[in-house]
Design brief:
CATH topology: Cytochrome p450
Helix content: 40-55%
CATH class: Mainly Alpha
Distance between the termini: 61 Å
CATH superfamily: Cytochrome P450
Shape: globular
CATH architecture: Orthogonal Bundle
Strand content: 5-15%
Oligomer: single chain
Structural class: alpha+beta
Number of domains: 1
Strand order of the largest sheet: 1-2-10-7-3
Radius of gyration: 21 Å
Length: 403
């Protein structure tokens, strides 16, 4: 078994604007350390894990993700699971695969092919319609924060008039770490709302995600109501939070690297590479957690059973052992898979949808806006840990005729 490592203070100050130098220091000292890259200063002592470790190298993060037997996701039952109920996020083994196979029916490739022209592109263009005549916009407030919510609500088949109510409840649920009582209330309200939507589809089937989940069947088994509405509530943090942040990160990075932005404007084939490099360089969620079910060893470090592991995706994606010039944003670099969508049995189910949404968002912006310039007054920047996204993306532009 590996040797213990020197403890690192759990309350080390974290630079929310740029945590990457801290990640690099930890990574250079070893792939795993005892301590955290999260801020535990506001967490009561009694609620802090006794044994807390962090995986920071690509190899360590990849190992933790892929060894679901030793490092499981049960920890989510006592965090976000309190608000959204039991979901595949915290399931392991046979129950996980059974539920994943059932709900994956809602994300089949032919659905994605239909959603792009029928839902995603019209939603994105509709948002651009709302600000294009002004010649200026905040692409966070007016665009990236809005389009995933509108897309998800349409994919679920929710009535358009319900969107303001749905958005408000979704934001309240996502903000469970800030106001947990309000998050519980939003969770209950969403459960009642989704149950009503489920019943409607049982009597009149529809071609949307809720309809697919209601009718999905494998070996004669259907999803329970609880499994359906818990999955639907999981879509809110998974489908809204990360997509709005990752698309905002990409737009900010391109606009602050003008040569690369102009290259994408000139050659749309580069959008795919830009999306992957944006996800690598500024992943929307830098850190997730796993629970060690037994004593083990990672990168030569002994980890006791019962430990909580911070899995630092943001650090892994900048590991210089895997990428040359890992701390540089470069859409032209050789494509090597990042780990922003996790790995192993809990790989993100919505990764193809997220990529498609971001591609369509960038394509529509470039089609309809020209001479896009970032307004640097006010110091817009990418901020946060573990969730990262721009504080704002104020731009000026000239409207184009295309739509």
């Amino acid at each position: 078994m590996g040797s213990p490592v020197q403890d690192v203070a759990m309350n080390e100050p974290i630079d929310l604007r740029d945590p990457y130098p801290m990640f690099a220091r930890r990574r250079h000292a070893g792939g795993v350390f005892r301590g955290s890259v999260m801020d535990w200063s506001t967490t009561p002592e009694s609620l802090r894990p006794d044994n807390l470790y962090t995986a920071v190298s690509f190899d360590a993060v990849n190992r933790v993700f892929r060894d679901g037997k030793v490092f499981n996701s049960k920890i989510y039952d006592s965090t976000i699971g309190l608000f959204i109920g039991p979901t595949i996020l915290a399931m392991e083994g046979k129950p996980h695969w059974e539920h994943r196979n059932l709900v994956s029916a809602a994300f089949k490739s032919r659905s994605l092919a239909r959603w792009e022209p029928e839902i995603v592109r019209p939603v994105v263009n509709g948002l651009i319609d709302e600000f294009i005549d002004s010649g200026q916009a905040d692409l966070v407030r007016d665009f990236t924060f809005e389009f995933p919510t509108r897309v998800i609500s349409k994919l679920l088949g929710l009535p358009e008039e319900d969107l303001p109510w749905f958005r408000k409840r979704a934001v309240e649920l996502i903000s469970y770490t800030v106001k947990y009582k309000r998050a519980f209330e939003a969770s209950t309200a969403l459960k009642d709302y989704f149950l009503e939507q489920i019943e409607k589809r049982r009597s009149a089937p529809t071609e949307d995600i809720i309809g697919d989940l209601v009718s999905a069947e494998i070996n004669g088994e259907k999803l329970s109501d609880e499994a359906i509405f818990s999955f639907l509530r999981l879509l809110l943090p998974a489908g809204l939070e990360t997509t709005y942040r990752s698309s905002g990160n990409l737009l900010y990075l391109l606009l602050t690297h003008r040569e690369q932005f102009e290259a994408v404007v000139a050659d749309r084939e580069l959008i795919g590479s830009a999306i992957e490099e944006g996800l690598r360089y500024e992943t929307p969620l830098t850190t997730v957690q796993r629970f060690a079910t037994e004593a083990t060893e990672v990168e030569g470090v002994a980890i006791p059973g019962g430990s909580v592991i911070d899995v630092c995706i943001g650090s892994a994606n900048r590991d210089g052992q895997r990428w040359e010039r890992s701390e540089e944003f470069d859409i032209f670099r050789k494509r090597i898979p990042h780990i922003s969508f996790a790995a192993g049995e809990h790989t993100c189910m919505g990764l193809h949808l997220a990529r498609m949404e971001t591609r369509v968002a960038v394509e529509c912006l470039l089609d309809r806006l020209s001479d896009i310039q970032l307004v640097t007054a006010g110091d817009p920047h990418i901020h946060g840990q573990p969730f990262r996204s721009p504080t704002a993306i104020p731009v000026t532009f000239t409207p184009s005729a295309a739509k």
